[in-house]
Records
---
Amino acid sequence: MKQEIMTIVSQKKLAPRIFQMTLTGKLVDEMEKPGQFIHIKVPRADLLLRRPISINQINKEAQTCTIIYRIEGDGTKVFSELKAGDLLDVMGPLGNGFDVDCLTAGQKAYVIGGGIGIPPMYELSKQLKQKGIEVVHFLGFASKEVAYFQEEFMALGDTRFATDDGSFGVEGNVGNLLVSAIEKERPDAVYACGANGMLKMIAHVFSDNPNVFLSLEQRMACGMGACYACVCHVPDDESGTSSVKVCDEGPIFRASEVVL
Ligand code: FES
């Protein structure tokens, strides 16, 4: 993990409150694994905590990385007002990243994302496809209005959509899509990022698969394993005191490693 002042190359709005920002800097040389995140200082003196944002794409040749974020408060609102050429203080890459080495060419992976958990699944899917793995995407949004990156995922493989209000794809959550998919086939690995309820459902549906990797969305402060703001409990912990730090030991865990 390193720290650098990166330069914004571009910023665009993808959907209401959702923005895509591309950054350039030497830090990109350190970025390898999908599912890692960067920790960005908000360029406003009264906002002290950095904001953790997952990496959506890594482009080594152009020495750029892309993030997609949603305005959730003052910090991300400040990010959304920045322009090409502005500078950001960035630490990273942080986190362990998804394990793509458990699969070999010809195997099948389910890549599942919900809402603002979808961005890191794009770099993951790209890397899986480069390894010759067949990817099937299951993407869930609140509505068509806040959907984004549909075509990018469709270009990588079979992509199925669900929306809470039924305005695009199947009505309901991604669980509805999975139920019909697993009647016909079982994937060799499952990768997911999204709200806790969705991850819980996935852990349950694929409880017989050892290769279920979940990216946990946990509130963070330091982002470096120092403050314990992001702990998650582990299974079979009789004392109730054992935990893992999502920022440092995660954010990705096998479903069997954490209590959701
Ligand atoms: Fe401080 Fe994880 S955010 S330990």
---
Amino acid sequence: MFETLGNKLQDILERLQREKTLTDAQVKVAMREIRMALLEADVNFGVAKEFVSRVSEKAVGQEVLGSLNAGQMVVKLVHDELIQTLGGESKQPTLKNEGNVVFMVGLQGAGKTTSTGKLAKFYKEKGRRVLLIAADTQRPAAREQLRTLGNQVGVPVLEVANGETPAQTRQRLNEFQQQDFRDLVIVDTAGRLQIDENLMTQLADLQAALQPTETLLVVDAMTGQEALSVAKTFDERVNLSGLIITKMDGDARGGAALSARFVTGKPIYFAGTSEKLTGLEPFYPDRVAGRILGMGDVLGLIERAQQADLQSMETKKAEEFDLEDLLNQLRQIRKMGPLGDLIKLIPGMSRALPEGFSIDEKQIHKIDSMISSMTMKERRNPKILNASRRKRVAAGAGTQVSEINKLVKMHEQMKDMMKMLQRMSGGKGMGALGG
Ligand code: GDP
Ligand code: MG
């Protein structure tokens, strides 16, 4: 499917006369394919229809960018619009110093309990004092599941007793807080296999008693078409503040994310990427947009066309290439989507990387979080990273000192390689990571 959509579009549109601006006919033909791609990615059909008509309106009459053909131009517009619809930039909940209560809701099996554990780990590593509340009294094993996760992460778990009223739970939370104050409380709730009036009332009552600062809907990426009605109903009944999409490590292309976001307009904060506690990542709209379109090849073409941007990146002497530059470049690269192919497009990149160093999304994410945990002074002058600083940075990034050592070493090697390449090319400054 991935190739066919791109090829088909190119074939059809290249046969149409090449114009400077997109014509009504071109857009119409292209959008038929785009709608199919959205449906295959399990985007709700109503959403797909509305989305397509919205982009079509914008597309007709649009100038076709220099090196793109009409088909690629349409895909670019659709891709851009998908990113916007999915929220644009990656966002995270804004927490206060204290008094944060995060209320997790969703259908049974969506991943609420797992995500509660993941969030506990995520925020504990950021220095938060976390308390979990096991409020799923529906399933006998649910509280035990959360207790186990709490133990693994090292945070306490307050278990709601059978038959306890929301007011009593509130009371017990207050008592806990007086003994052992926590600035972030995450509440795991019960779910059902389907939207259920009884459950909604229960959730609304508990929500009223606990007064959460965030109410997050956990949506299984595999939900498909149903994601729309689930998100809509939960939003109507418990007024969501954000979304978490789980199981993005599976086959799902991300259509559920688009549907849920489209109907609620609420930000998608995180993506679940494994069953493990470490399987939580910020949600990146650009990556998911590419995945929904499932058009690595066509997007790749567009990226190549846009390579000019990459090459025009500030030219810099190898000597001055510091960790902040590395971070900025990695982020710029990441914004452009699938990495594997792209990385090869950067002149000198493959040679600049130390042996055995494979660049994948996770790796980039890791490097990002390590450099992000450094002060600007440290990024600009990595030499000052002594043992105690490395220890602090490692803790901040939730990793080991040995990883920081590797990063510093890698940066040194990249610098050396750049110096060498610069000598070879006659000592001029270089764009990107070399060449
Ligand atoms: P709940 O009923 O909403 O609390 O769902 P659970 O947290 O119990 O998760 C249901 C199942 O989905 C469990 O087997 C989890 O391990 C699994 N799960 C949750 N999140 C993810 C994820 O992001 N990726 C994968 N692969 N599995 C997940
Ligand atoms: Mg659960």
---
Amino acid sequence: MSKAIVIGAGIAGLASALRLRHQGYEVDVFEKNTYTGGKIHAIQLGDYRFDLGPSLFTLPELVDELFKLFDEDPRNHFNYIQKETICNYFWEDGTSFSASANRDRFVKEASQFFEESEESIRNYLKRSQRKYELTSPVFLEKSLHKSKSFFNLETINALSSVHKLDLNQSLDQVNHKSFSNEKLIQFFNRFATYNGSSPFKTPGIMSMIPHLEMQLGTYLPKKGMHDISQSLTRLAQKVGIRFHLNAPVDELMTENKTVKAIKAKGKIYNADTVVCNMDVYTAYNTILKNAPKPEKTLKQERSSSALIFYWGINKEFKPLDLHNILFSENYNKEFEHIFDKKYFYEDPTVYINITSKHIKNDAPRGSENWFTMVNAPTHEGQDWKAQTTYIREKIINKINRNLKTNIENHIEVEKVLTPKDIEKETASFQGSLYGTSSNNKFSAFLRHPNFSKSYSNLFFCGGSVHPGGGIPLCLMSAKIIAKHIRQS
Ligand code: FAD
């Protein structure tokens, strides 16, 4: 049986391992941490459980597919609910808007709240869908770096409609052309953060993201986001994939343009195929330091990072749901600080995720588990202790103003995660959440391919390579490499 080695047990590493096992490989996964899942991890603070990283779950069928590969009914292993309310939004003037997952209801309520015509909102969502459907088969589901990806009907369709993709305008410009209400523009601008970019820089094609959330739906695993990585780990173990935890790979042993083996903890393991799920930037600076470097790719701007307070709150807040946004009064300045000044803006947008709204065991009765996050600049040597003290006070004041409370009195337990911690924990260069940013129209083409140009049997998956970051795209990267390997 051919041997495959996967380096890193992030979501894309787990999915790649499963897909290769399904293709008949003997698979070993090496993970530097003592746990699998990478950014999809959880912590327990006293009686409160928190998902450590991602909180928004879309396209759950991509996880289900992995169970189905092995003729397992996903529902016997992994369950989720579909959300009826997508997110609650709050502004400093005391207004708030609850975005319904029901399209007709959303259009009606948004039209009333934002004072825009139902027609303009409906048309925006239709264009969002069109952009998603045109680009997804070309930009997301295939390699962008193989010439044969370009000679088929879907690509020709997408390229002939390129003028409809709004590549030459920023998302903010597209939104300003579509609407006049600044709050609605801010609402649709926020989707740039779903891949760690700025709405003032990312191209208008990103207006396809609302289609994912608002029309394909948002979900919550019944045991929390952590169950995505944990249920897949259990499946992997069941189908005979071997995990080597606390086993960082230190070196790739190469010969004649192939990787012959990897070295971990001083031992050598042979492989026919190697899949790297590490952040590609870190990989080139460590295990691939002797390989030719794709300089242009590695110079791409990183996506934003995050600073998170995990707070056990001994009170329940009725106006809050699973996902909540407290908007900054000056979005432009906030993104200028994140991407250019590289420190926090005084009025940040605050995201609060509360899984205990649905998962009762995540917090004691009458209490809530608050994952309180602000978008942050990448880690470039800032003094995170000082930045944390500064932003904690700003966040608390904002919550107090918006929710008319004194939140500090309700914080029972606390843990902080900074961009530097994210880098340390997951080896994600500069603590970026989604690999490189999509702050220019060529980003998709400049992302690292899913294969190595130097070694014929080395492949790359995960958020730092094509097609990009976020759980669905990481799962798609695993699908792309499994296809490459099958065809190679
Ligand atoms: P990672 O999770 O980055 O894992 C890589 C693995 O490689 C790690 O386990 C690491 O320890 C291991 N590794 C590194 N070096 C070595 C080595 N030398 N040897 C062995 N192993 C090694 N996405 C969403 O879809 N929705 C969200 O709401 C969302 N929010 C987010 C919020 C936060 C705070 C964060 C951090 C991320 C968020 N994301 C979100 C992004 C999403 O989590 C990631 O895109 C995705 O989980 C990345 O998966 P990955 O497979 O690329 O690998």
